Amino acid sequence: MKTTLSVLLILILGNIPAWAALGQSEASVTADQQHMKSEDRVQTFQAYKIHQLTTASGPTVREYVSPQGVVFGIAWQGRFTPDMNQLLGTYVANLQTATPAQTQIRRLRGVTVKTSDFVYSNFCRMRTCTGRAYVPGLVPSNVSVEVMR
Amino acid sequence: MTSKVPSRVKAAPLLLAELCLFALASCSSNSSTTTTTTPAVNNSVAVTAGFGPLGQAGGVPNGLFVNITVCQHGTQNCATIDNVLVDTGSIGLRLIPSAIGSVLSPISENGNALEECIQYGDTSYSWGPMALADVAIGGETASDVPVQLLGQTTFAVPSTCLTTPVLAGTPGTPPGNEDTLQTLGANGILGIGNGAVDGPWDCGSYCTSNIAGNPYYICPGGVCEEAEVSTGVQAENPVAAFTSSDRNGVMITLPSFGTTGAVSVSGTMSFGINTQSDNAIGSATVYSSDQCGFIPEVVYAGLPYQDTICSEEGESMGGFMDTGSNALYVSDASTLSTLGLPISDCASGTSGYGFYCVTGGGTTILSNITLVGNSGTSGLVSLNIEDATTLFNTFNGVLNDLGGDSGEGYATGTDSFDFGLPFFLGRTVFIGITGVTGETTGAFAITAPNGFVAF
Hints:
The complex is a heterodimer.
Chain A: H1 2-18, H2 28-36, E1 39-44, E2 49-54, E3 60-65, E4 71-78, H3 84-87, H4 92-96, E5 103-106, E6 110-115, E7 118-125, E8 128-134
Antiparallel strand pairs in A: 1-2, 2-3, 3-4, 4-8, 5-6, 6-7, 7-8
Chain B: E1 4-5, H1 12-22, H2 24-29, E2 44-50, H3 55-58, E3 63-71, E4 78-87, E5 91-95, H4 97-100, E6 105-106, E7 108-109, E8 112-113, E9 115-119, E10 125-137, E11 140-149, H5 181-184, E12 188-192, H6 206-209, E13 216-218, E14 225-226, E15 228-229, E16 249-254, E17 265-271, E18 286-288, E19 297-300, E20 303-306, E21 319-321, E22 328-330, H7 333-338, E23 343-345, E24 356-358, E25 363-372, E26 378-386, H8 388-392, E27 403-404, E28 417-419, H9 421-424, E29 427-432, E30 452-454
Parallel strand pairs in B: 1-15, 4-12, 5-11, 21-28, 22-27
Antiparallel strand pairs in B: 2-3, 2-17, 3-4, 3-10, 5-12, 6-10, 7-8, 9-10, 9-13, 10-11, 13-14, 16-17, 16-29, 18-30, 19-20, 19-25, 22-28, 23-24, 25-26, 29-30
């Protein structure tokens, strides 16, 4: 019984990184794709790769993958903000714990968080939301952060 | 697990009867024709810009507020509510419980209260039941409008509504919950956005057949789950539901004043466009909206800011006029300084953080900003931007030259022109509402299926 419980715990805990994307391996994109029940269209550039996840009605999510196979950034647009608890993975803690000095709030509309190891912005007006999140330290040196949009 | 809530049917004869109540003379004398004569309704109401009810200590500058009355349908059981935030960037009326008491009738489905949860872009949210209200603003009335009562529910916020974590330190109980005067800074939000492709409801046809991202919930057995609902029970722009012909839009007029602002200013909001003698659109330039409610293109200094969000191809929103934005959030500091303007993002830790600073503390002008409407109509505006730290040191509640960065990025593909409340000062701005535009009689012949802005 005790063994079953610990196996179960590992399975549950194991789910958290497996569902993450930002900062995780390219393979984690598949988990996002399954969670969103979306189509995955891959575009390959010289210095990075884009997985574009689209659904018939939900937001479009673009995940930016380095040549080392790590998701270094995410951008989204659509009727609502996609599930950040999933897409940000462990970086969700960076968002939650950002200090006022790192956080610019546009009342009811949007927020920008800028720290040395995590950047996040989101904005919604009426039924349109947009934003992006990235890890500066994981962005390939020959890639501008402005490709993430 | 999904649930369907049937449409709330509005009987046409009842609507006609209500119209007649407000225009008895025209109904009795014109009973042989189907033409509706414009009722002589008082279509104007006072608005106040400033910090709002929390004052300088707890408020945010550049809010726009109005008084409204809500009544239980068909009764004199009413509540008059002051300090309701006027927001041209959202749809529907939302009220905090302390302002409203228990006068309104909840909307239910098979005995389950219909609840709504909206996550805002700043990670806060509103959660509470839907109710029906007769809404009066000035002399205008709307019957049986679905509104949201913020808080006033015993059910916990569903996890599917908290898919973005609330930032640490956000006020509210629990944090992020915008259901008190202290957290919201207003007794409610009057969302009168132009509506765009989905009409004058806050979700439109999307919520009739989708669960993902659907803000509507029912909680049978205490378990809250998303519910597909008809537009008839969705939060609706009360203006679009007015019984008079003044339901095709609003006209907001606010005075101009000195560069460092004012403690507060008074203006007017009038309802209807070209429906009465006091709301003629005249020679104002009409910029029609695209399907997402934006002016699809803004060009400044040769750089285009095009709405790429609507097609989900980029982060820019083009341009929009938004009384719910408290500054001119335009372009970005890097682009503007590259153009030679003395603008920077105010440093973290200073009072102006989150807004534009101007080197030397003065005012700088962004001139010849071109707006291009969806129908191709174009026109020019200019904006003054003053140093935010200097402005905040005045402790004024209305700051007409307050600016800020429109996005975290610094490319025109990620930036926009958010013409917030300062844009409305010293102007008359018309907001034409989706779906009802063009239905009025007379000379009003603007074709803008997604609504428009004109000034």
